[in-house]
Every structure is written in C-alpha cells, then in structure tokens.
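Researcher: Next entry in the queue.
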Amino acid sequence: MKDGDFIKELLQKGREAKEKVSSEFSDISTKQLNWQASPVTWSIAQCLDHLVVSHRVYFSVLKKITEGNFQMNLWEKYSPFTKIWGNIMKDQMQEQVKRKLKAPGKIQPANKADLQIMEQYHRSIDQFLAYISKCSTIDIDKTIITSPLLSMITYSLRNALQFLVTHEHRHINQAIRVKKNAGFPQL
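Model: Structure for this entry, 187 residues:
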C-alpha cells in the first residue's frame, strides 16, 4: 500500500542521521577520520564510506522505481521467501547491534579516506532521501525488489527502506563509538 506517514517517518530518521554526522564529525581531522582502534575495526571514514557504497548499490533500482520504469521479474513476483527475507534483514540491521556482521565485499569500505568523505556522505544521503521521498506515491508493500548483493534474496520496498534507514543509524552509532574510544587521537 501507499504509506505517506511511513515515508515521512523514514525521511525524518534519515535527516536525523545526516544531522548526527554533521554535529559529531564536522570538526575532525583526516588523522582522526582514519583512526582505527584495531586493525579489524572500522574507522569513522570507513563507517561513512560503507554507508555511501551501501546507498549506491540501491540507487539504480530506486531510480527505476521512482521514475515508473521498474518491472518486477518472475522471482520478485513469486518468491515464497520475500516476507521471510524482509524480516531477517530488518532483524539483522537494527540500529542497536545484536550481532556483528561482516559487510559483503560489494559494500566494503575503502581503507583510507580524506575529509571529502563528509561531502560524499552528505551528497549520498541527500540522494537517498530524495528517492525515499518519491516513494510516497508507490505501493511499497507490493513492490518487491531483489537484493543488489545476493540475487536470490527478495524483499518488499517497505522492508528495504526500513532496514536501510536503521542501517544508517547503526553505522553512525558505530562511528560515534570510535570517536568516544579512549585511544581516539585528540586535535
């Protein structure tokens, strides 16, 4: 069904994510941006880059949907697993981490970044929110998409938008934890 209130709620949460990034990280140095507590943990830059590449893998399908050019394929129309996968993804991508997950290769962040990652993030979240905004006239429950990361996984557009926005906050919170780490370099 079309759900303008749900879309408004997602847009608000998306704007909150953008504001959190601005308020927390606008005055940090490149050294701070790339600092890692250990070689196996992500830096602030990697958290933001991961969000940028995560947005990017969904942009082509969101563009097709919002421009009215999207047609579900046979698997999207008839997969018996769509609701199951949607619920699994929503459960796994909660804002508060229940279990650490390894990001698939396609959305792994770069090892280092410069301060331009902040601008890249802002452009990316603005584009993502613009796509979400255009979904207010779309039946987000009957529009089924295929995961851009694994072609056997399908879920409703509602579930995808919901877990992508909570995923946003999940990694911003992770970046804030990096900044609050006792070993984080001071200016």
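Model: The chain has one domain: 4-180.
Researcher: Noted, moving on.
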